[in-house]
Amino acid sequence: MSLRLIRNRHPLVHCITNTVVTNFSANGLLAVGASPIMADAIEEIEEIVQISDALLINIGTLHARTAAAMSAAIDAAKRKGIPVVLDPVGAGASKYRLETVRKFLETRAVTLIRCNAGELAAIAGVDWNAKGVDSGSGDADIEPIAREVAARYNSLVIVTGAADILTDGETVIRVQGGNEKITRITGTGCLLSALCAAVLASTNEPLNGLEGLLADYKEAAEKAYSLIGTYQAQFLNELERLSEVAS
Predict the structure, then answer these.
(1) Pick from 61, 174, 176, 219: most CB atoms within 10 A?
(2) pLDDT of residue 181
(3) Which of 50, 12, 28, 24 is nearest to 201 (CA)?
(4) Would you list the domain boundaries of the chain?
(5) At the topology level of CATH, where does 2-240 sit?
(6) Cα 31 from Cα 35, distance rounded (Å)
(7) Is the pTM of this model over 0.90?
(8) pLDDT tens across 138-180, in order?
(9) Are 173 and 221 in contact (CB under 8 A)?
């Protein structure tokens, strides 16, 4: 179980994330034993990266100030050699988002792109009917696109959906399961990206660690069955429980 890896390692995850999910992402990291630091002031980026074990970049509420801080953090993380997770929220929703994502990817410092099918299609330049920050729909075969993007940017790629796809450009892993209700809770994908950063800081076997995390996340989603108003709390409970199993 990869959540157990996080609890045993206690990584400090530097999150430059969107304002909608800051609290939920921080609480989710804390629930499994990680330490979040939600710092986006460019004046302190260098110092924060130097004490961190991993960096999360999430563009959900992107603007010029945070984009500059994100760019500086990626550069600092590359110099330090810590993993960088990019969550390209709504990459296809605007030219500004897509250009910013591609700029980050061109640094070759991104360890993992954690996205949905619509965001992947935007990065790859493939036609897709994206709907804002939601996945949308399309006819393209996602698996070869994910492999191509991973190879192009020398990164891992996770595409979440009914079946999650994980690839390093060669190996492709599919993880089944989950609960559709999780898609109706704001921030669950963003939290997954933060947990991916924590896992990458906690293992020397990134594919195995991320595959285990996806399985843990889907199990938590399945076991947190509840009315929508209390589902988020039940989901955090399940993440905590899974992280403590045999720890």
Answers:
(1) 219
(2) 86
(3) 12
(4) 2-240
(5) UDP-N-acetylmuramoyl-L-alanine:D-glutamate ligase (3.40.1190)
(6) 9
(7) yes
(8) 566 899 999 999 999 999 999 999 899 999 999 999 999 988 8
(9) no
